[in-house]
């Protein structure tokens, strides 16, 4: 014996394109603002850079604060890459691009360009987010619970359901 349900009344309208636009506008900026403060996607301080990397940064007169911004290319490339709107929901993919930044090294107390390019931003982002055998993970992609609440409030105020 089965159960039959019947829906009556006016269906709720979902403004998915509006929701997707708000998400695509909010999430990259939220990631950048939080990362600039040295905070990961769980709301914790990033793991410190290993001593040899901190020494290299100091030799280049760079700040040793963990903000994932030596060249700025990776962080500046984080944007909405794909948006899919369906009658039931939205999917907004936020990610770094596949571009590269200049490779830099320390010389004469400054960061100097080597003339070569670093790894693609999306690959570098993966390594930073998940870590490698020689580098601790610094999970930066995503929203903290506080940022998620802020996004939900923005969506609620925007009246994406009618």
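-> sequence recovered:
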């Amino acid at each position: 014996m089965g159960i039959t349900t019947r829906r009556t009344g006016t269906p709720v309208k979902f403004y998915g394109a509006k929701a997707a636009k708000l998400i695509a506008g909010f999430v990259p900026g939220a990631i950048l603002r939080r990362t600039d403060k040295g905070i990961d996607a769980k709301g914790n301080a990033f793991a410190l850079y290993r001593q040899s990397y901190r020494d290299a940064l100091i030799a280049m007169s760079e700040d040793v604060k963990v903000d994932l911004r030596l060249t700025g290319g990776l962080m500046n490339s984080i944007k909405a890459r794909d948006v899919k709107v369906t009658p039931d929901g939205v999917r907004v993919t936020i990610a770094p691009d596949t571009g590269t930044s200049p490779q830099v090294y320390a010389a004469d107390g400054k960061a100097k360009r080597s003339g070569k390019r670093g790894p693609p931003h999306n690959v570098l982002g993966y390594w930073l987010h998940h870590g490698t055998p020689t580098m601790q993970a610094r999970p930066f992609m995503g929203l903290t619970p506080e940022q998620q609440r802020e996004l939900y409030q923005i969506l609620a105020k925007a009246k994406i359901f009618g």
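Residues 16-157 form one domain.
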